[in-house]
Design brief:
Mean pLDDT of chain B: 97
Oligomer: heterodimer
Order of helices and strands of chain A: EHEHHEEE
Helix content of chain B: 40-55%
Structural class of chain A: alpha+beta
CATH architecture of chain A: Roll
CATH class of chain A: Alpha Beta
Helix content of chain A: 25-40%
Largest interface: A-B, 32 and 54 residues
Distance between the termini of chain A: 34 Å
Largest sheet of chain A: 5 strands, mixed
Distance between the termini of chain B: 31 Å
Structural class of chain B: alpha+beta
Strand order of the largest sheet of chain A: 2-1-5-3-4
Number of helices of chain B: 27
Strand order of the largest sheet of chain B: 2-1-6-3-4-5
Strand content of chain B: 5-15%
Largest sheet of chain B: 6 strands, mixed
CATH class of the largest domain in chain B: Mainly Alpha
Radius of gyration of chain B: 22 Å
Radius of gyration of chain A: 12 Å
């Protein structure tokens, strides 16, 4: 099953650091995770970079990118340091 | 009136026990500014070619810059320059804290050590009272105990047992900050020099005090308001990078065999903030306060930086933040660079896994790693091999293809297969596998911008631009973190999935030729705070282009030093693993170095073999 790793703020809202899913595409996955969340909060939560096994989904097939059972999708926000 | 540098430095001959106050060359100050640039110039001029880093005649230089002591935001760095015992190339290692300011207040721009003392000593600089003092009672002490044993009012730069024992990646520690890379601590130890301490009340002259004050006030306010320097870094410290790098598939995992692990979340900056943070900390004159003090097992400890988490945590299969805090602290106390230590341990663990080395090391085994770190500082048992670093270990045990270093310096916590511009930067950096000579990964993968991290397009231009900026900023002796605020705050507000953001990133990925052109044209204007601060402090008008040229000059001088010392342009390479082992099935196949290197050399004005041409050397006014 594909796994979603939400960014920390969303993980705190969801109460889970990872989310297992049967979704077949990124869009389906996001729909599944967002169910039951306040729409405004959800809209803000997904303003982040979505990476499928490290690759930005927009270099793949965007939200229509299909998922394999062992895929991992991370949601990340900017960071800095060195 | 001219301001900034004081124009004088200390020349300390440890063999003879003599101390001289010397004048710096004003022409060199103009060309190389201070800090890193002056350090490189002094190293080049004061050593014959081919000197072993542990030769008595090798010099070790502590330098500060024209902004040091002015209270300009982030003007708190000192730079240690010598020849690296790891790489045989130039070593310049940078450190925050308060030592830089104290050295300037004592009245000096730099201290140059040469020779070797017959017994352990430390140098005390109290303005004009400069004394080499006996350090037998300090020898063998940890960096924390050494600092505690020295007078409280002084700024201090000290080594631990690892430096005394010439571990090739021994560091220099000042307060909780570390000049970590390249083994400058080992050269200090080879001179029997345990510490340098400084204090004084002298002021850095400022040529245009009113203009400077306004600039300083505005810059402080700006940095405090910027989403990165006023938001993410104070909130999470550099550990903010854990989640981003794991998501990007670039956090080293089991010696760069993978780029992420679901358990990386246990090492996140957010975890540290929510579960361990006691208070934030920071260097003198810095409004960012990215340092962490954490509480573990009922006591206070230094919160680890991202690099420490990446290399001593994730890379070793350790997903217990408290254990990483303790291993990081152990390295600091013994005086070991956490990056080289973690990368070398990762390499040794993989060697063990492949039955190429007999050891007790195993992924996630904290006690085994703790013992290995202690043994490294003491050069005991396996520690003797580990103390030589990954390159030398691979020469002894094999495994060159997965020994993760460039020119002998171990790579830090960004796998370049997910940020290929950073891969180019690693390959060509003058001090070897270092991330902070340009931080190209910030523009590709970790920051608010993301110039296609898998594509070589425009990366040579970006790397040259970033390296030149870094060289000039670190010659002002400013912390590089303030450059993160150059990216407009508005970009942080854009939805990365929106059309506007994606259009900007696409445009940036084609910006190489424009950036290349901009670097060739000399523009008179001042755009950023770096050239404005330098101008108001020194009284010399410096443009953004001038500063970029200073960066290019320093960079090329460092290259000339490396070539003089025997480095071959063929050493501008990456380990085979990073060039050809795929990291994911989404195209993360390896760094296309060959597609970037020729363009990089050309942009630098070096010939096709990577040697600076005579015309470039003349144009940059570099004295050979």
């Amino acid at each position: 099953m594909p796994i979603l790793v939400p960014h920390a703020e969303l993980a705190a809202s969801l109460g889970a650091e990872t989310f297992l899913s049967h979704a077949r595409t990124v869009a389906e996955l996001l729909e599944e995770v967002g169910q039951g969340m306040d729409p405004e909060t959800w809209k803000k939560s997904i303003q982040c970079t979505l990476l499928l096994n490290g690759r930005n989904i927009h270099y793949l097939n965007g939200f229509s990118t299909t998922l394999d059972p062992d895929d991992v999708i991370w949601m990340v926000v900017p960071s800095g340091g060195g | 009136m001219q301001g900034g540098n004081l124009g004088r430095y200390l020349d300390v001959d440890l063999s003879a026990g003599t101390i001289e106050v010397k004048r710096t060359d004003p022409q060199d100050e103009e060309l190389y500014v201070g800090g890193r640039g002056m350090g490189a110039r002094m190293l080049y001029d004061n050593t014959p070619a081919g000197l072993d880093p542990f030769d008595e005649r090798m010099v070790l230089i502590f330098s500060v810059g024209p902004l040091t002591g002015t209270n300009a935001p982030q003007s708190n760095r000192f730079i240690v320059t010598t020849k690296s015992p790891l790489t045989g190339c130039i070593a310049d290692s940078h450190c925050g804290g308060n030592f830089a300011t104290k050295l300037r207040k004592a009245g000096y721009d730099a201290v140059l050590f040469r020779g070797r003392s017959a017994h352990p000593v430390y140098l005390e600089i109290d303005e004009d009272n400069i004394t080499l003092k006996d350090a037998k009672h300090l020898w063998g002490k940890t960096t924390g105990d050494t600092q505690a044993a020295l007078p409280a009012q002084f700024g201090k730069a000290v080594i631990g047992p690892a430096g005394e024992n010439r571990v090739r990646y021994a560091c220099i520690v000042s307060q909780h900050r570390v000049a970590g890379r390249c083994g400058t601590g080992a050269v200090m130890g080879s001179k029997n020099l345990k510490a340098v301490i400084a204090n004084g009340k002298k002021k850095t002259p400022i040529a245009q005090p009113e203009a400077y004050k306004a600039l300083q006030r505005n810059l402080s306010a700006f940095l405090k308001q910027h989403p990165m320097t006023g938001g993410i870094l104070p909130d999470l410290g550099t550990a903010s990078l854990v989640m981003t790098c794991a998501g990007r598939n670039i956090i080293p995992t089991r010696n760069f065999q993978a780029g992420q692990d679901l358990r990386s979340t246990k090492l996140a900056g957010e975890k540290m903030r929510d579960e361990l943070l006691e208070k934030r900390g920071g260097c003198l004159a810095c409004p960012i306060r990215c340092g962490r003090h954490v509480k573990i097992k009922g006591r206070s400890a230094k919160g680890p930086e991202y690099e420490t988490i990446g290399m001593l945590g994730n890379n070793l299969g350790i997903f217990d933040l408290e254990a990483v805090v303790e291993l990081g602290e152990l390295c600091d106390e013994l005086g070991l660079d956490t990056i080289s230590m973690g990368t070398t341990l990762g390499f040794a663990t993989e060697l063990t896994e492949r039955d190429m080395l007999s050891s007790d090391l195993a992924w996630g085994d904290v006690p085994a790693y703790r013992k290995a770190i202690e043994d490294t500082a003491a050069k005991r048992g396996l520690g003797a091999d580990l103390s030589d670093g990954s390159k030398r270990m691979s020469e002894k045990y094999g495994g060159e293809d997965f020994a993760i270093h460039v020119k002998g310096l171990e790579l830090p916590a960004y796998d370049p297969r997910g940020c290929v511009g950073q891969g180019l930067e690693y390959a060509v950096n003058n001090r070897g596998g270092c991330h902070i000579r340009g931080s190209t990964m910030y523009l590709e993968a970790t920051g608010p911008a993301s110039v296609d991290p898998f594509s070589p397009r425009s990366k040579p231009e970006l790397v040259v631009f970033q390296q030149n900026t870094n060289a000039s900023v670190s010659s002002l002796s400013m912390c590089y973190f303030s450059t993160y605020a150059v990216i407009p705050a508005a970009l942080f507000k854009l939805d990365p999935n929106g059309l506007t953001y994606r259009a900007i990133m696409t445009a940036l990925s084609f910006s190489g030729p424009a950036l290349g052109l901009m670097m060739k044209v000399k523009l008179p204007g001042q755009m950023l705070w770096f050239e404005k601060l330098l101008s108001t402090v020194t009284g010399r008008t410096v443009s953004m282009s001038d500063l970029a040229e200073i960066g290019a000059r320093i960079y090329t001088l460092e290259r000339l030093y490396n070539l003089r010392e025997g480095m071959r342009p063929a050493d501008d390479k990456l380990p085979k693993r990073l060039l050809s082992e795929p990291l994911s099935r989404q195209g993360q196949t390896g760094v296309p170095l060959d597609a970037m290197l020729p363009k990089y050399y050309k942009l630098r004005g070096w010939d096709e073999t990577g040697v600076p041409t005579d015309a470039t050397v003349r144009k940059l006014q570099i004295r050979r």
